[in-house]
């Protein structure tokens, strides 16, 4: 129950008592423990604000781009992607991938020029992979130019995705997945899909 405190003209001690009483009510703690719990409440509020800052930025951008998320036969979620002005092709949107990539069959079919080979180091060992030069990679009209994408070996499952759109395309963006509506929205402070 909220304590009743009145201020009849307000001296400083009464003001402090009202503040302590109100804060104790809000934090559901006795007044004597308020001082040690005050920092905890402030830390919780600061943590909540850090979490909400990207959402606030997303709401206050000039424009928000939304593209469809389409589940592929193997369960991956894909976005329509244009490569060198052709497409759309189903690319996996992978927030855990450092860079974008193209599967070997796709690179050969679309005659993507070979780039330099790169060494990939993983938990199970090291492998040398090809890279491909992509002049333009575009999702929802936002374009990245002159990219070098990793070459991936062809899949052995039923997936026929053309490649992966990775964090090199999404860096500096707020990305919001809306699974019930099968869409993904992304924007930078400029308001464009990344």
Can you tag this structure with a few keywords?
Cathepsin D, subunit A, domain 1, 6-stranded mixed β-barrel, 2 domains, 27% helix, alpha+beta, elongated, 3-stranded antiparallel β-sheet, 194 residues
Q: What's the short version?
A:
This protein has 194 residues and is α+β, with helices and mostly antiparallel strands.
Our count of domains comes out at 2
The level-1 CATH class of the largest domain: Mainly Beta
The structure class reads alpha+beta
| Percent of residues in beta strands | 25-35%
The description of the largest β-sheet is:
6 strands, mixed, barrel
Give the low-pLDDT segments: 1-7
**Overall strand count:** 12
The CATH homologous superfamily of the largest domain is called Acid Proteases
Average pLDDT taken over every residue:
75
> What string gives the helices and strands in order?
HHEEEEEHEEEEEHEE
Radius of gyration, in Å, reads 26 Å
Strand order of the largest sheet: 3-4-10-5-9-8
The geometry reads as: elongated
User: Kindly, what is the distance between the CA atoms of the first and last residues, rounded to a whole number of angstroms?
Assistant: 51 Å
CATH architecture term of the largest domain? Beta Barrel
CATH fold type of the largest domain: Cathepsin D, subunit A, domain 1
Fraction of residues in helix: 25-40%
The number of helical runs is: 4
